């Protein structure tokens, strides 16, 4: 079989993407160098990452893009299915389920949830995670719907709950992924499907958002 | 003034501890080497960290210990004040408030919450965070009280909520700390005190734990 130069390049690029995602997921983003990724992907050229992606930021954007288009498709479908009288639970489900459905559909063990958790926690490049979805039309629609049905609460309470729920959901997905990938975590977690985990995560997130605000002096 | 050799060593040790905590908080744990810490602490000897703490794990344990005894004291006091008919909210407050009160009492900007958030997310040494409090008598009492008043729920739901609330609280504290330390975050967050943030975090955590479990097939 003759592999054209263009095809070979695309294959190498995809291999580097998958290798980088796995190494970042397992060891953290700061702990892995472009050189290590090139080597682990079997590239004789230590600068393969630089050649294909420019720098680490370019590589990370490419990893995010490689998942976001598929997540976006699922979100658009879930959004189309949502009823006219959707409440807080339905909108939160619409925020969480697309990524989980995407993770569940990947072949073999997934690494993307752990990659996202490391990225979100990175003080220098964590913003890339939120940048990458800022352009999503379906996400904007879901967030608009969600904010419309939320009970009134002071802005600082809302801001706090927003970042808390983001952290919580990102790390919950990473925990589930880790558990499914190997030993060491609670068996009661490993024994359930992604869809069941999604239900549990949505329940807890709904509770967080609907919790009464007792801090009377916060405005 | 004559500084004895022992005193000087203790001063250097303390300086290394504080420098390491700050650098880890700002850049992440994997991104900072022992050598960088020694240098930033003004130690001519690049191996000062090794000399005082052995390795990175020893250093991290020492940072945790330097806070935990004080947090433990506050927790014992909060625990003594808790009423006989404490409910879920009171126990959660007792789990969250001691660390926040400790952070609020530190001189100048604190870095400990961000340090803990990075540590918790570290795939290799994250366990040190939980190890360090496993010996706390007051924490064991608070957890016992908390579990006693929780509504019944299937074990996987409980396990999921436990890790979700841990991630959420650790990162919420880190977010507040980051906001208080500088520009860039929501003004509505920066304008409030640690105690008000504590109220907001407790409210959301109570909501998470009291949320109805809708996943009927999870056991």
From TrEMBL, chains A, B:
Keywords: DNA-binding. Residues 93-201 form the PsrA tetracyclin repressor-like C-terminal domain. It comes from the Bacteria. The keyword DNA-binding applies. One of its GO terms (molecular function) is DNA binding. Residues 16-63 form the HTH tetR-type domain. InterPro entries: Homeodomain-like_sf, HTH_TetR, PsrA_TetR_C. Pfam families: TetR_C_30 (PF17939), TetR_N (PF00440). This is HTH-type transcriptional repressor AcnR. The lineage of its organism: Bacteria, Bacillati, Actinomycetota, Actinomycetes, Mycobacteriales. The gene is acnR_2.
